[in-house]
Amino acid sequence: MCIVPLKVSRSSKGSDEAESNGVRRENLSAVGKAAASSILLIVSIVAALAQEKGAVQAAGPQPGTPSPRSHHDLSVQDLWAKNTEDLSTPSLRGSEFAPTNAVAYEKDSEGSFTREIVRVGWRLGDPIDLYIIRPVTAKKVPVIIYLYSYPFETDRFRDKSFSQFLVQDGVAAVGFATALTGQRYHDRPMKEWFVSEMKEALATSAHDVQLVLNYLATRSDLNLDLSRVGIFGDGSGATIAILAASVDPRIKALDLLDPWGDWPDWMSESTLVPDAERAGFLQPEFLAGIADFDPVKVLPALHNQKVRMREILSVTVTPNEAKKKIEAAAPPNVDLVRYQSSQDFRTAAASQGFAWIKEQLRPEPDRAAREGGSQTSSTQASKSQP
């Protein structure tokens, strides 16, 4: 449709104006008819689509049609948003996570080891930088996960000397920051921190250990022996190690240093807890929420793992009264080692490092041969190792 532009002369307003108005009415009538036709066409199309949709719904899904909840139709963010995570238990049972989203963004080789940093994620807004350090060897190697205490940064895993130290004796090392710690503490008000959100921090971190092992199982290129997994845990990391080992049989050995626990005494006396916040953490409701995550309750179930628990008596993050109760809860298979001071611990650790836990992950024939060659591997001797 073409609308002819109208020119009206200033000197001929009589009949010219009437003629002009007639032409305008004619053109406007044509536009209105065209618009009405378009509207009728749109209405008919919508009605037809609605009728077709109703027929499809009545007939049910056609063969090969993806379910509306099919993960093929969802973005990673959509999948994460549908996660269900049970924070009442360290077990993954009852929780459902999206497929692991992994992005390898750094890899280097330093002669005796390779180091890879992979950002993994199974929760919305909670990416985890996973450090995988492997000795250069064609053999399948056991794995030790290193869980350091709150507050913790992962910078040490970038250090060349420390990485070489970790992979000595042919053992791979895996490290990451636990929940609400290091690079994982963000987008929270400052009043929310590891202790105030203790239940969340412990539960999600125990889940993370298991999900990390699940991810490593998909990495056949790493040639890891996941039938020989150990955890070194320090402070809150030691508590998380206890919780994860209680629900995951893949974890065969634990080397624990000053685990947090015995929550009523810990909250009452720990030097980590600010006095201004202490009263809130001693409320019955708060303590009841973390009762099932107490090593005093969980440790007795660790009968099948090889466990060493070391305590530095001068370190007061875990009060001595709490340390006594944690020790009393340990089953007979747990080796207990006490140091009077941090200096005593450092002296012992300097000579032995992580030798104890690496030894526990050796294949049984190798361990038997080594132990058979010396009579000094008595219980008392093992307790003297760092």
Please explain how this structure is put together:
The protein has about 375 residues and is an alpha/beta fold. The protein has one domain (about 75-360): Rossmann fold. About 40% of the residues lie in helices and about 15% in strands. It has 14 helices and 9 strands. Helix 3 (about 160-165) links the parallel strand 4 and strand 5 (about 170-175). It is globular. The N and C termini lie far apart (about 90 Å).
Question: What is the compact description of this entry?
Answer:
By secondary structure, the protein is of the alpha/beta class.
Query: Any idea what the CATH architecture is?
Result: 3-Layer(aba) Sandwich
Mean pLDDT: 82
Beta-strand percent range: 15-25%
Give the helix tally.
14
Number of strands: 9
Question: What is the CA-based Rg, rounded?
Answer: 33 Å
CATH superfamily: Alpha/Beta hydrolase fold, catalytic domain
Tell me the helix content: 40-55%
Q: Numbering strands along the chain, what is their spatial order in the largest sheet?
A: 1-2-3-5-4-6-7-8-9
CATH fold call = Rossmann fold
Name its key features.
386 residues; alpha/beta; Rossmann fold; nine-stranded mixed β-sheet; 14 helices; 9 strands; 41% helix; globular; disordered N terminus; disordered C terminus
